[in-house]
Amino acid sequence: MITPNTDSTFIQVKSENLGTFTWQNGTVAEVFRMTTQRAVKKFGVSVSTKREDNVCRRTWRLDDLLLSAVDETVKQVFKDAGAKVIYDCLENKYHLKLEEIAGKPEDFSAGLERLLSSAAPVIEKMILQDLYYKLQLKYEKKEGYRFADYLKELRERCG
Q1: Whole-angstrom Cα distance, residue 17 to residue 100?
Q2: Residues 6+ apart with CB under 8 A from 26
Q3: In angstroms, how far is CA 25 from the centroid of its own chain?
Q4: Nearest to residue 154, comparing CAs of 116, 115, 117, 127?
Q5: Which of 6, 87, 94, 107 is most exposed, with the fewest beta carbons within 10 Å of its own?
Q6: How would residue 133 be classed by pLDDT, with cut points 50, 70 and 90?
Q7: Residue 61: pLDDT band with limits 50, 70, 90
Q8: Which fold would CATH assign to domain 62-158?
Q9: Pairing relation of β-strands 10-13 and 45-48?
Q10: Using N-to-C axis directions, what is the helix angle for 62-94 and 147-158, rounded to 10°?
Q11: Domain span(s) for CATH 1.10.1200.200 in the chain
Q12: For residues 56 and 159, is the Cβ–Cβ distance under 8 A?
């Protein structure tokens, strides 16, 4: 059962199955990932008034999905307190706010590398895997590609 809130987020999601749900007013919600023992965030459900076949043209913009993937990955690896420290360092030392990451992926990569050294590529790969998962695309490692290159390709692919 999915109960929509007034701002198109969901206050309750109960479903054993992934799938699409349609209400009488034509609103379509697609549950594309469920987690257990965790509050459902608005990024776990995409909502639109029209069903589109192109997976890249979901309701959530690519930038929103990227920020969600960044936040979820950083919090998964470093927990909430560690994520706050990383975001604070990126903002204070490298003048990069969380919401600016999508527009400045090179700066994000450089900041992560300065903060995390050799762990940065691993974190970036995890972020990209989560982003591709959210877009229902297959992530494939490409020789010579950097974080920003994957995002550029996704932008071109998704229009």
Answers
A1: 35
A2: 49
A3: 28
A4: 127
A5: 6
A6: very high
A7: confident
A8: 1.10.1200
A9: unpaired
A10: 150
A11: 62-158
A12: yes
Sign for the pseudo-dihedral over CA of 107, 44, 57, 131: positive
What contacts 100, CB < 8 A, 6 or more positions away?
107
The CA-atom distances, in angstroms, between 32 and each of 15, 43, 128, 130 are 11, 10, 17, 12
Distance (Å, rounded) from C-alpha 61 to C-alpha 109? 21
Question: Could you tell me the end-to-end alpha-carbon distance of the chain, in angstroms, rounded to an integer?
Answer: 33
DSSP letter string, 17-69: S-EEEE-TTS-EEEE----SSSPPPGGGEEEESS--S-GGGSSS-HHHHHHHH
Are residues 135 and 157 in contact, defined by beta-carbon separation less than 8 angstroms?
no
Q: What is the pLDDT of residue 12?
A: 42
